[in-house]
Specification:
The protein is of the alpha+beta class. 33% of the residues lie in helices and 21% in strands. The relative contact order is 0.19.
């Protein structure tokens, strides 16, 4: 029986595009399958802010940030908390990824035309001891062009391959089975879905119009994670985080359904660390949604007062931008599924960034003029739109009205004005000196010691109840699904492993489907900026290994 291609790649997201591009460069023929229509090529990466984790980059050095491979590995291991027998390959992937991020990653991307915004962000700051969770230094590099700018170099390489006859696209092909010949997986079967003109990210329909069967010498699974499938998220929800939320916003489109992971398991693949996942605690409902339950994540600076549903400050060090999953665990044990930011106009104007390519038209459109205009604006236009139209926002001139609005929004009188006023006034008294016992105020001043934060990400310390800084703003924050941190176990060649630790013949995996490498390269937590890079690094490894195997 003849092969239809050298390799079949399942999933046309970033990892799939990178793997396909590497196969094309090696002269291999590829069939690229995806259940979505062609207009959704690039998958979740298209919608991202384009954040990339780099170590000791020129951008860091220009901002006087001293970074090193050793410091980055210390931060990664302290964050990951590897403690399971199945963390053998994830740890090896982590060490390899740090080498990549501190080595050729930037030059490799630069050679393909990818460029970076000059100010480096400081995500997941941790707030614990030196060997614990968090980034010791800023490492979050934003792609000039955001998510579309990340996807473009690899899509271009794949389309060049298609023009040469090396790549054939099979969109609207949903895989339902992997078959073997003489012990090696070489057959992909599934359903052909109805054609769809649905816009990128919107529901594309699931009516089946036919079936297919394709054969190749190797199969690469790059089908993504589970974040759009809330039933699966709840089924795999870790016990350490309490009961899963009744209400979840979606940070990814519905087609991120995780179903291909089950298909791979049925074929013999080992799926590990499925209870490790990455969801955000600063989700707001999109006032102009693209997909169902569409949520946007606030990327906050450190100054907003973070309160639980009853108006109590979250404990140290659960400040905005410090420990995502530590905050999630605290929230899920509080008895309520939402929290609040309380802030003012000065803070929201300087410190609120919104995740997503569509929420950052200046960066996505590569407009220097618009970036400068955004920096000069009182409140950036995308943020102002949420203030005006977002269902989670309360904007008032005085604290009494703000508390009434917060309680009206939730339908419960959980926020006590006197108690909240006491918290804010106490915090405001600490602002007048350069020293303080309030550790959040210390964190704000520490952030402003970094040039990048002082320029564009951290408001000057001031009293929240200062009328000149008003109006006051409260933002209800929801749990927002995003990434699977577990996945198909792979070795450093991206070969998928079975329950007994041997390779599943003919099958490779990359991207989120492989836990971004090894079945869980991040361990329990992420340092941020590592998801896109993980797709590229593991996709490259899978493409190169498969090309060599079928050569």
């Amino acid at each position: 029986m003849a092969y239809d291609a050298d390799v079949i790649v399942i999933g046309a997201g970033l990892a799939g595009l990178v793997a396909t591009a590497e196969l094309v460069e090696a002269g291999r023929s590829v069939i690229l399958l995806d259940q979505e229509p062609e207009q959704s090529i690039g998958g979740q990466a298209h919608w991202s802010l384009g954040g990339l984790f780099l170590v000791d980059s020129p951008e860091q050095r220009r901002l006087r940030v001293r970074d090193s491979r050793e410091l980055a590995l210390q931060d990664w291991l302290g964050t990951a908390g590897f403690d399971r027998e199945e963390d053998h390959w994830p740890r090896k992937w982590a060490e390899a990824y740090i080498d990549f991020a501190a080595g050729e990653k930037r030059s490799w991307l630069h050679a393909q035309g990818l460029r970076l915004f000059p100010v480096v962000g400081w995500a997941e700051r941790g707030g614990y001891e030196a060997t614990g969770h968090g980034n010791s230094v800023p490492r979050f590099h934003i792609t000039w062009g955001t998510g579309p700018g990340v996807v473009a170099p690899f899509e271009r390489r794949v389309r060049v391959g298609a023009a040469k006859g090396l790549v054939r696209f099979r969109f609207r092909h949903r895989v339902t089975g992997l078959g073997r010949t003489a012990g090696t997986v070489d057959t992909v079967t599934g359903e052909i879905l109805e054609p769809s003109a649905a816009a990128r990210g919107t529901a594309s329909g699931r009516e089946v119009t036919g079936t297919f069967e394709l054969r190749a010498q190797a199969v690469i699974v790059t089908s993504g994670g589970i974040g759009g499938n809330h039933d699966l998220v709840r089924a795999q929800w870790p016990r350490r985080l309490g009961n899963p939320p009744a209400k979840l916003l979606s940070g990814v489109p519905a087609h991120v359904d995780g179903l291909m992971l089950g298909v791979a398991e049925e074929a013999g693949a080992r799926h590990i660390n499925r209870d490790r996942m990455w969801h955000y605690t600063e989700g707001i409902e999109n006032w102009n949604p693209i997909w169902a339950r569409h949520g946007i994540r606030i990327l906050p600076g450190p100054s907003s007062l973070w309160l639980d549903a009853r108006g109590r400050r979250l404990p140290v060090p659960l400040f905005p931008g410090f420990d995502t999953l530590g905050t999630l665990e605290h929230i899920m044990r509080s008895g309520y599924e939402y929290t609040w930011f309380v802030l003012d106009r000065k803070i929201i104007g300087k410190e609120f960034a919104l995740s997503g390519s569509e929420q950052n038209p200046d960066l996505t459109g590569k407009s220097v003029r618009d970036v400068i205009g955004r920096a000069r604006a009182d409140v950036p236009a995308p943020v102002k739109a949420f203030m005006d139209h977002g269902v989670d926002f309360v904007v008032e001139k005085d604290l009494s009205a703000l508390v009434r609005g917060m309680n009206a929004l939730t339908g419960e009188t959980l926020i006590d004005e006197a108690g909240l006023r006491r918290e804010i006034v106490g915090r405001d008294r600490e602002i007048t000196n350069p020293f303080t016992k309030d550790l959040q105020v210390t964190a704000i001043r520490g952030a402003r010691a970094y040039l990048g934060d002082r320029l564009i990400r951290t408001a000057a310390p001031h009293r929240l109840l200062d009328p000149a800084a008003g109006p006051l703003i409260a933002v209800r924050l929801n749990i927002l699904t995003r990434k699977s941190l577990g996945g198909l176990e792979t070795d450093l060649s991206s070969r998928v492993l079975t329950e007994d630790g041997t390779a599943l013949p003919g099958v490779y995996a990359a991207g989120e489907a492989a836990g971004f490498g090894g079945g869980g390269v991040h361990g329990y937590r992420s340092l941020e900026g590592t998801f896109l890079g993980g797709c590229m690094f593991s996709g490259r490894a899978a493409g190169r290994a498969a090309a060599k195997a079928v050569g």
